[in-house]
Design a protein that fits this description.
About 45% of the residues lie in helices and about 10% in strands. The strands form two sheets. Strands 5-4-3-2-6-8-7 form a seven-stranded mixed β-sheet, sandwiched between helices. Strands 1-9 form a two-stranded antiparallel ribbon. The radius of gyration is 29 Å and the shape is elongated. The two termini are about 30 Å apart.
Amino acid sequence: MFIPSAKSKLSLIILLLIAIILFIWSFKSRVFIKEKYFEEKLASAKLMKESEEIIRKYRLNQNIFIDEQNDPNKTALIGEKETEITTDRGSLLAKLTTLNPNFAAVIVDYFKKAKLKKGDLVAVSCTGSMPALNIAVMSAAKVLDLDLVIINSVGASMFGTTDPDFTWLDIESLLYNKGIFQYKSIAASLGGGRDLGRGLSKVGRDLIIKAIKRNNIQFIKENSLEKNIEEKMSLFSNYSNNEIKLYVNIGGGLSSLGDAINGKLLSPGLHRHVSTKNIPVKGTMFLFAEKGVPILHLLDIPKIAEIYDLPIAPVPLPKPGIGKVFVEEHYNITITAISLAIMVILILIVIFFDHKQQKFTEKEINISNKD
């Protein structure tokens, strides 16, 4: 009769085979459960993808050159590194990551966590640095039927909308005229140093002003950063009648942050309360925080991608509906517990017979010694 024993190769092989079978059984028991607001997230991701495709086709019809090394997905949303309106250094990796249409689903998740409801008004401060993220915010807002009041700083960091003939304002107008979005900026500033275009050449500043006029947007140009911030707060207030439910900062615009270092002091994501102590120059983001308005800070893109398990600079771009923001993986607890119990019982049986055999051997030795 076969007696299981840890010293027996046959016993160990049988245990191994049973363990593999139980592992496969448990693994196959996985179920994928849709996350909250799945339909809204999917709709916003599809809308973002549609918007990106419209821009790509439009740009290709203009016979623009797409640098496939820097824009491997050929989206035409990755601008040249340096042009007359490039304001600062920028991370290509971060910008490639924002092209994922599922970023719009992430924004839906943030909006829902902020408890926004249909018709709520959201203030948005953006630049030309991350156009795909601007589109993600508009996609989520449209699907959730939110109103946006947007103020833009036109200059863009490296690889953003750095083409003076196709700035973020031109993208806004294109998508507005195509009927994709009902949103457009109510005003725009130069961006760059001090939000006054410092660091740009006169030619660069003139090209931005030309883009603002071309798109019939109110031009904000006071004589200091502080005055620009004051003017933007006034415009937000006049437009919203102080009914703003959330403030969204996209990128590192100085009029929103006040100082570049302030953007790093606040972690990315949703903040219901923000301490504004020790902030020497408060941009519009911190001034809204002082009023008790929740803040959605969208700057550290790799960190946000890590939180939502989104791929970094994916090639090709994922399809809408892919990722943990849409579904959560669960194992069947009953099957997993049964598998564990079976393995424990089998191991105990082997140990029991080993122990019994060991006792028998000791008994034999004792008898032998007596003899």
